[in-house]
Amino acid sequence: MKKASITTLGLTPEEERRRRMIKYSVAMSVRMVCIVLMLFSRGWWLALFAAGAIVLPYLAVVIANTPLRTSRSVERPGGVVQVRPPADKGGDGSPGAERKAS
Fold first, then answer.
1. C-alpha to C-alpha distance for 15 and 67, rounded to whole angstroms
2. How many CB atoms within 10 Å of residue 76?
3. How far is the C-alpha of 67 from the C-alpha of 74, rounded, in Å?
4. 1 lies in a domain?
5. Where do transmembrane segments lie in this chain (predicted)?
6. For residues 20 and 13, what is the distance between their CA atoms, to the nearest angstrom?
């Protein structure tokens, strides 16, 4: 079985949040460009930029909230080994019970 290493771990919450904020900010910047271009365009270009300005907020949220998948499978550490305390050979449960009996 392969051992898990630190490189197989996912992103920290701060890194994931930063990545989502960057994706959302880029999409909203493109939307602002579409709105400005709507002021200077005519015909089909106007309809194209208007569609971009209307659809991009929805797409930005969907794209930003899509989780990043670094690998297809999750590597887990080796099997769990149960460790049981040694059986009490005394009778009363005191630490020196075994020595007192002999």
1. 12
2. 11
3. 15
4. no
5. 21-40, 46-66
6. 11
Under 8 Å between Cβ of 90 and 101: yes
Report residue 83: phi and psi, to 5°.
-115, 120
Tell me the C-alpha distance between 62 and 54, whole Å.
14
The predicted-structure confidence for 1-57, as pLDDT tens digits, reads as follows 555 555 556 677 888 889 889 989 999 999 999 999 999 999 999 999 999 999 999
Residue 90 belongs to a domain = no
How many domains does the chain divide into?
A: 1
Q: Is 65 a domain residue?
A: yes
Domain range for 71 is 6-76
**Residues 25, 29, 34, 35, CA torsion sign:** positive
> What are 71's two structure tokens?
């690998």
